[in-house]
Write a structure and sequence with these properties.
By secondary structure, the chain is mainly alpha-helical. Helices cover 76% and strands 0% of the residues. The chain contains 17 helices and no strands. α2 runs antiparallel to α8 and α14 runs antiparallel to α15. The longest helix has 34 residues. The chain starts with 19 loop residues before the first helix and ends in a 12-residue tail after the last helix.
Amino acid sequence: MPLNNSSRTGAPGVETIYAPQYLSTTLGMFILVFLVAFEAMAVTTVMPLVSEVLDGERLFALSFAAPMASGMLGMVAAGEITDRWGPKIPLFASVAVFLAGLLVCGTAGSMEILISGRILQGIGGGAITVAIYVLIARAYPGSLHAKIFALFATAWVLPALIGPWLAGLIATFIGWRWVFLGVMGLVALAFCAIIPALNRLPRESHSELGPVSWKRLLLAGLTGAAVIAMNLLGNSGGAWSLPALLAALLLALLTIRPLLPKGTFSVRRGLPATMSTRTLVAGAFFGVEVYLPYLLREDYHLSPDRAGLVLTASALSWSVGSWLQGKLGDKLSNSHSITLGALASTVAISTALLTAVYHPPVAVLICGWAVGGFGMGMIYPRQNVNMLKLSAEHEQGFNSSAMTLADSLGTAGATALGGVIFATAAAGWGFISVFSFCLALALVLIIVSPRTKPVARPAA
């Protein structure tokens, strides 16, 4: 497979993403990613109020599962289009769809209409992520990829710190509708900063790839439907939920397999193994994190604001880990950075498991989970960098969408399975059972992470 180590538009020798020719693109992408992340965090805060006002409590879970599922369709569609015509068309289209989703949500008169807006948000947000990955590959030299992905990590961390608080203020003093409507102008402004970089890209048309694959779009839709079923079943708690959940998971695995590089499930060395590590680390880390505030409330009787400190600590250390891997650049190989992140995540999950068993001081869990956040900062950007490095130009869209799909599958699958495990575990064993399951995923991650190294090629 050809390697893509350089950009067609990046100037050689430039080692900063803030150089004049990159500055507006860097800032525009940062703000755009920040706003997509802010919406995800803010909606979590205001959705209880929204569902009450719109009399839609029965659709509360669907309001979160629907955009996750529709995002998969957006990811695949953007991947199909970018490989054939470049990132310009899908970025214009995805931003427009995302803005339409915000408008529908902000003006919704019923919960059903709001969920339709959430579906549009999911499609647009998923497509934006994929198109931006490809834009990075085309507009920046390979030596800057680790740095730009480190910046994107900060764009996700900041909303985690201020998003819920800011959304609460907006909903209290202005109205919940402005959580959606208030960011529309900022999204448009951020996109305008990216347009010059898009216009500088040469026109391209890979006719040898043929038309957009409707089969892949259909498979993405089926995968999304399976993900919705997994989310709903994971919270049902019925005696039949585990068999039904396993059936939904099997459907998701069958439908997503053609949307991933060949060899992903068998952890073939190189690009397929990189995809596998994204699924494993997302499932292991987030499968535990969703239960940590619950653990601190149940076993330590902490208030929500104090229980949230464990998540704040990991978000801050995530930013530090991302900064460090970007600073190290080529001094630290992608494979070694992924392995270090896997080890740190395993330490964090082990700390959570020991906390559930022995109940040490809360500071132990906070410090341990901060180590995990640092590890995620080391592993996530380098998985993206490795993916672009191992992708031929006409595969960048497909592989970028595959990476985001692998992420979504890991998170949705582990949290859904964790919900059933927690609900069916014996009294007092819920947290221990879920954390043990996620620790097993983390140990598998350590084993397979060295396989992310590129396949050695014989000398010519």
